Amino acid sequence: MERASRVPINPAQYHPKDAIGMALKGGAITTMAGLTLSAVQNSLTKQNVGAWGVFTRTGGVIAIFAAMGSAFEFTKAASANLREKDDSWNPAIGGFVGGAILGLRLRTIPAVLGYGASAALLLGVFDYTGSSFGGYAVDRDVDHVERKEQLRRNRRRPIQETVDELGEGRGVYAPGYQERRRERLKQHYGIDIRDPPPPRPVES
Predict the structure, then answer these.
(1) pTM of structure
(2) What residues have CB less than 8 Å from 186, skipping those under 6 apart?
(3) Residue 148 confidence (pLDDT) above 90
(4) I want to staple 74 with a disulfide (CB 3.0 to 4.6 A). Which of 23, 119, 161, 204 is the partner?
(5) What pLDDT sits at residue 94?
(6) Residue 201 above 80 pLDDT?
(7) Mean pLDDT rounded to a whole number for the chain
(8) pLDDT at 197 over 80
(9) Measured distance CA(198)–CA(85) in Å, rounded
(10) Please, is 108 exposed, middle or buried when counting C-beta atoms within 10 Å of its C-beta (0-12, 13-18, 19+)?
């Protein structure tokens, strides 16, 4: 089985990212997460503050989550555009900014730096390992289409090997099957099967 050929992607083909659009999308997602968390906190309070307590009492959670998501996505895209590289440093830089915003609630410099560094380390390592809890499975330096075609060629068994194991029939036929079939029929039954003649053209 031959090894998959590595086809490096030309780094000059970097495509700029829409930082504003990504910030709005990320902010919308984290805003909904913050709204859900705020609603849970509001429902667990002992005082009856009403439904508007989601915004008046625990609404700070919504603002923090919205700022974190927007800052993370914007910084990640801006870093990629400035560096013209799409690697794990971009989410690490964005994670530091997002984590620093979370640390602002404690109003201390160590908290800001600590939350930022923790988020940067977590998101950078997560992206470096393939952004998957199952581990890094795909080499991003290899072209996706070429990798799929190579895997298809590697896993395709030769027809003769399949015929040797399963035999001919059931949709599995080796080259020259029709000729061998004619010879067997002629040898065992004396029947000579020939190809049908081509159809004659219809006269108008």
Answers:
(1) 0.57
(2) 192, 193
(3) no
(4) 23
(5) 92
(6) no
(7) 79
(8) no
(9) 62
(10) exposed
What is the residue whose two structure tokens read 């508007």? 52
pLDDT interval class at 70 (50, 70, 90): very high
Q: What is the pLDDT of residues 40-56, one digit of tens each?
A: 888 887 777 777 778 87
Q: Which amino acid is at 191?
A: I
100: Cβ–Cβ under 8 A, 6 or more apart, which residues? 112, 113, 115, 116, 119
* 93 contacts 50 by C-beta, under 8 angstroms: no
Q: What does the H/E/C string look like for the chain?
A: CCCCCCCCCCHHHCCCCCHHHHHHHHHHHHHHHHHHHHHHHHHCCCCCCCCCHHHHCCHHHHHHHHHHHHHHHHHHHHHHHHHCCCCCHHHHHHHHHHHHHHHHHHCCHHHHHHHHHHHHHHHHHHHHCCCCCCCCCCCCCCCHHHHHHHHHHHHCCCHHHHHHHHCCECCECCCCHHHHHHHHHHHHHCCCCCCCCCCCCCCC
